[in-house]
Amino acid sequence: MDRTSARATTADRPAVTELRLSSYRLHRGAAFPLGPMTVFAGPSGSGKSSALEAYEALSRLGGGASLEEVFPDAAACVPEQARPDAQRRRGFRIGCTVEGPAGQVRLDVAVQAEPELRVVGERLTGNGQILLATALRDPGRRTVQAAWHTAGSVPVTRAPLPDDRLGTTLLPLRVAGTTEGQRLVLAAAEQAVVALRSVFACDPQPERMRAPVAAGEGRLRGGCGNLAEVLQRIRSECATRHAALVAASRAGCAGVVEDLAAQELADGTVRAVLDRGGLGTTPVGRLGDGELRYLALALVLLTGPGVLAMEPVAEVLPARQALTVLADGFDRCLDRCQSRELLALAVRMGERGHVRLVGAVREAADAAGVEGVSVVDLGV
């Protein structure tokens, strides 16, 4: 497939193309464009982790989680310089733009963190129209007043919605879809929700990857502690993906790598091993932290929603979804060669349109030289 055909195909898959942090932690009035492969770079304290944290928060809200689940310490999300109003209220604002079949859709959310955690305003916009707007009218009630586009005999429908969840996720339960305006609202809401739910937050923890694990369903968790279990599944189900993982292992692991396998032990557990050819095997538990993180991230980039421990968007065909991998500390414990090899792998997988990457790295220069990777340098 040439690149023109690939772009035509990927246009059908909703994707977040901008992250807005209007007022979140140390960010004020920030808008970050997100390409297929985007990394945030900058020194400690520059806001890399908070940007990815906000993206993950939007993802979880898009999946239907409540504010309390997503923001257990909401007060910490409020910018330090933000002053309370006369009612002692303080909060934060985040949002994103999603592009896909419904065009460009913008979602913005205002959250009150103090004195009570609640949504105080939400706006969903598409095709230059406000499709959904909510506002807190009565602080004594745990609802917001919502108005969504109808374009029928009644131009706008109004109803209360809960103040602890994203109203956009509730629209399919409230909007009948009988008018052109209602169908526009549903299409925009679906596009935003599909893009936000198709996110896998990944931070491999080497200390959890060294010991053998029990065999199970083979769905990789965010900390990658069950790497051996997932490797066993990939090896048996998809020879092509497994061969690509072995090739990636050769590029990022020291010494000879002939194969990467899951070895069953007498107690019923499995452990991952590197086949060194005539030199025997090496359990991955003996590898350094960098090599373990490299293997785990390569496995994530080479698999997909069916293998990763994430809730699938079951009502939407997989061909219409693009997985976004969120990787804070993407290059943690990695040397420059390993980091660049993983970024190049991400670009190759992203060219197929099924995988996107948003990560955080220490040095902008390490990522800037990889063709196809966009760098947001917060240190400038």
How far is the N terminus from the C terminus? 38 Å
Helix coverage percent: 25-40%
CA-based gyration radius? 22 Å
- Provide the succession of SSEs: HEEEHHEEEEEEHHEHEHHEEEHEHEHE
The main β sheet shows up as: 8 strands, antiparallel
Oligomer state equals single chain
Unreliable residue stretches? 1-9
Q: How many β-strand runs?
A: 17
Which structural class matches the secondary elements? alpha+beta
Please tally the helical runs, counting DSSP H or I stretches of 4 or more residues.
11
Strand residue percentage: 25-35%
**Could you tell me the mean pLDDT?**
91
Cα shape: elongated
Query: Strands of the biggest beta sheet: in what spatial order?
Result: 2-1-4-5-6-7-8-9
Structure report:
The structure is a single chain. With 380 residues, this protein is an alpha+beta fold. The chain is built from eleven helices and 17 strands. The strands form three sheets. An eight-stranded antiparallel β-sheet has the order 2-1-4-5-6-7-8-9, covered by helices on one side. A hairpin with a 3-residue loop joins strand 5 (103-114) and strand 6. Helix 4 crosses helix 5 (180-197) and helix 9 (289-302) runs parallel beside helix 10. Mean pLDDT is 91; it is low at 1-9.
